[in-house]
Amino acid sequence: MKESGLTAFPETEEWLRDSCANAELDVPAFQRRLSRCELSSCRGMCCYDGVYVDRDTADALQQISQERAAEFQEIGVTLPSIVITEGVWRDQSAGLKTATKFTDFRSKVRDFPNHFDDTSCVFRCDDGRCSLQMLGVKDGKHPWFYKPRTCWLHPINVSPDRITLYDEKTDPYCFPDYDGYLSRTFCGRTVPLGRPAYEVLQPELDFLGRILGRDFTSPFRAVRTEGA
Predict the structure, then answer these.
(1) Among 31, 17, 28, 36, which residue's Cα sits nearest to residue 209?
(2) Would you call 5 helix, strand, or coil by DSSP?
(3) 168-203, pLDDT tens digit by residue?
(4) Which of 52, 36, 50, 51 is nearest to 189 (CA)?
């Protein structure tokens, strides 16, 4: 059964339900081995360069940032007056995204990718936690209530056609001068001794399933049986 009102972004939820409810689940891709990252090591590096958002999410985040600025300060984040900007990717306009701030990842994060910049989303706390997630917990809501969908889904990719997990070879952000994004953050990197992605990312798959009205546990039962 599909559930609504799970996030602060009703139009985004509606788009997911209307456009992606029948998307193919790429079961083989979720057998890749990952490891749940630890903030003490990664410092929230998936927040690097901010996150692209749709208009519904952008408007909600701008409103929340203004109405609850004092609470964000109590959490440990001082937000600029404008938290949404126009993103540019490879010298072209790429849509709306959260604003960024300087963040010294390179000196604090071991194996920080050379092609990543020392920037992060303005909603990121100094210790790597997400202030939007902390606000959700403070309000007694799901931790991802205020969090943009691409953030809580990371590194999962959802489109009307397919729900998949890109690897180092299929990462769509790989170019000769830019060695990928989804597969280069700690939570998206292949870890040979890790656990299958469908186990590591079960919370994300469960939450997505609640929005889409789908069961993302059953498709992997046969995989678990074969690997037993």
Answers:
(1) 17
(2) coil
(3) 999 999 999 999 999 999 999 999 999 999 999 999
(4) 36
